[in-house]
Amino acid sequence: MSKVDVLLGLQWGDEGKGKIVDVLTPDYDVIARFQGGPNAGHTLEFNGIKHVLHIIPSGIFHKQKINVIGNGVLIEPAIFYEEVQALRQKNVEPTENLYVSKKAHLILPSHRLLDAANEQAKGNAKIGSTLKGIGPAYTDKIARTGIRVGDILEFDFREKYQLLKFQHLQLAKTLNFDIDSFRINDMTLDAYEELWMQSLDTLRKFKLINSEYFINRCLREGKKVLAEGAQGSMLDIDFGSYPFVTSSSTITAGVCSGLGVAPSSIGKVMGITKAYCTRVGAGPFPTELFDETGRTLCELGHEYGATTGRSRRCGWIDIPALRYACMLNGVTDLIVTKADVMNDFEEVKMCTDYIIDGKETDEIPFEFNEVEIKPKLKVFLGWKSTLVNAQKFEDLPKQLVEYLSSVEQMTGVRIMALSISPDRKDVLFR
Ligand code: GDP
Ligand code: IMO
Ligand code: MG
User: Which residue of 69, 109, 186, 273 has the fewest CB atoms within a 10 Å radius of its CB?
Assistant: First the structure.
């Protein structure tokens, strides 16, 4: 019986999960997404071409590997259709090696409308949602009113759809939302709904399965399964900076419920962190830089959202948050990305503790959103050199090694790999 290895983000998302999953895929038989939906944007680069995936797992470019969209994931059929089309344009035919859980929930156009209505109603307190309908669709799942992928095969699907849509429109009205002016990709709700309905035909052509049986069978047969996370631990519904979070369990625990595997079936937990820190949307970010350095990180790191194009907020690496994420996930191996972005920095800083009301702590406070947090910063000399010629860890400049050793020491987890460019070929394993 083999175990499910896990790869997930330890910060506020966009750590480079897509790239690393693609790099690790040759070592696995099955790649399975366990939560989130099209709020995710996972970027892969190889042969000079960039690919962005939202719902489809990042192992899809490896034809002989099975990719699974697990029950914990949300599927927006029109976005799924577009993603499939984009793959086909690149001569990748996903119907063969992509399986979809019948228990995955659907995002309806009216979930997206409700997402916008909720954000509008929040005013200044808005979360900065990607507006893909994530919150409302998971709300329906938990309220036991959602519609699942398997339902699109049933005769009463349209009826279920209309009923749920009606409830959504009622709710949007109570929020004083202007439904007539609402647009998705410049389309009215009705026009988008038509496209959405047509997209179901594409979804129906995939292998719609009970993915929990499939994955457990794979484990019994000794196959290697990699679970791919979306978002990051600090966006987790329970442990993130609530309410500035997403609506799913982004941590290792989410693998069990999002794929139907037992806790005892979890193997390695690989946690990804950038060598610095970013966040998109609203919410606390203790190490955020509002100065030239922050802007430099954003520019050199191309920190613009892969899903919404918004510029990401940037700051120094946050050890209290990283340690928290290692604890929640049981991280066994760390992967660090984007150290190359700081190649020209004179100095690099690391937040080792938070200072709250003059007191030092390394614990994320319950009042994370309200209290003023001053980061206690440790300064490292920059490495001031390119990393392009590095083939292995031993080739790295000593200042970078010192910085990475400090990350290991403070988290208590060994770094297994370092990514030094967006490209598939640039990962140094230890
Ligand atoms: P994900 O959501 O965790 O998959 O990450 P995103 O794809 O949203 O954002 C990561 C961005 O950084 C993408 O544009 C990647 O191409 C890029 N990237 C990943 N690893 C590295 C790296 O080591 N160095 C640099 N410079 N860019 C990287
Ligand atoms: P990947 O998988 C970064 C953020 C949004 C917003 C909050 C809630 O690419 O790392 P939602 O649409 O879920 O209601 O948004 O979470 N967010 C992400 N930030 N990367 C992501 O995914 C994100 N998915 C959601 O910006 O602040
Ligand atoms: Mg992303």
Answer: 186
